[in-house]
User: Fold this.
Amino acid sequence: MKCKRVQKLISIFIDGELKSGEKETIESHLRNCRICAEKMREMEGVQKLFSAAPKHTAPEHFAANVIANLKKGRERGFWFDFFLGEPAYLKMAEISCAIIFILIGMISGSVLFLGSGVHTQTEIRSSFSLDVFEPAPSNSIGGAYISILGGSS
Ligand SMILES: [Zn+2]
Assistant:
């Protein structure tokens, strides 16, 4: 049996739930394979940890209460959950965060505009205008075409 298969079966082996044939095969493998034996010790440690943990029992009628609450939630529907359901305060927080960010954006945007010394819309437009580029340089095909047509270039 390969180590991979043995290591898959170790936890079942520790629980003592292996078929008799597999059980012997794994026992002999563990005697001869240091790596798998080490895995086995690790697994046993984990299992001991779990079995040592204190066990809690659910309160009385726990399952029935959970089911009743689920049914109640379904009856209330989407809009109830949106406005009055428990996560509503989270949604309100999200919405107000979005509004605050938008306001910050608007305020900082207008502050930048005022600070830049550009005041009128036409000035702003001309600063972004394509007129800063030569529409057809004279040594380009477009420029040659325009000069043939008698345009100024
Ligand atoms: Zn092995």
Observations:
- Residues 2 and 153 are 84 Å apart (CA to CA).
